[in-house]
Amino acid sequence: MALDETQLAETRGRALYQRGHTTIFASRQDPRFAYCMYVPPDFDADPAGHCLAVVMHGTGRSMTAYRDAFAEFGRYNRCVILAPLFPVGPLQDGNSHGFKYIIEQGIRYDRVLLSMVDEVAASLGTPFDRFLLFGYSGGGHFVHRFLYIHPERLLGVSIGAPGSVTLLDEHQDWWVGVRNFEQMFGKPLNYAALRQVPVQLVVGKVDVETWEITHRPGGKYYMPGCNDAGATRIERNTALCQSLLGHGVDARQDIVPNVGHDGMKVLDTVKDFFLRVLRSHRCAPPPR
What we know:
Layout (H helix, E strand, L loop, with lengths): L4 H13 L2 E2 L3 E2 L7 E6 L11 E6 L6 H14 L2 E7 L17 E2 L2 E2 H16 L6 E6 L1 H12 L4 E7 L20 H5 L5 H4 L4 E6 L28 H14 L4 E6 L10 H17 L5
Parallel strand pairs: 4-5, 4-8, 8-9, 9-10, 10-11
Antiparallel strand pairs: 1-3, 2-3, 3-5, 6-7
């Protein structure tokens, strides 16, 4: 049966703005935040056969660039790509770092992301109970802390060159450690679930500048022990990897040759990791 003009317009509009490289959507739960997607061309033929990969921007908020950089991966590996946008200063104070530490006054950025995942699942008509998660630099801050709070939601996580790290240290408070984790997030850290998530830590071999990552007394996020994980991103990345391994987490570190602090230049390494995770996930027997 032929489509009438209204149905035809809706079909064309969906193809133009809600499939492929989509337009940018305000979050329905909190329109201060937004997201865009890449939806592969064969998605509608097999929605349940597609996974979700979330790619988190850093301080530069280059969400469309990361979405576009993962689009080919999504197309050929049956993955919807979701790229959130957490803009600078949602509290009108110009703070560009709030999302990195998960909590910014009344904002819980982990919950904002989960609401976006739920919104995308509803709009596409398929659940994404677990998903891949990548973030670089400021995004690397966010994703490893999200991992601690919601490990049960993740298929795998790639942590790219965070400037500051939260170690699994029961002798230091959040954000340096996790001693008061339950007080901060209303639940204990689920180590059993954490150990089920494959984790990649990725950093460039010449990512050695420290001007942007050294916390100084009086700074907004300064607290005792905040620089103890190392001076450079490589040292802090390594300390985080060792902390995860020391708690039985399936973690690996990839140091990419000839790369400084440039997220686009580590993406091939990240995609290789995600491909291994997807193959393992899709070959696993379904849960009983």
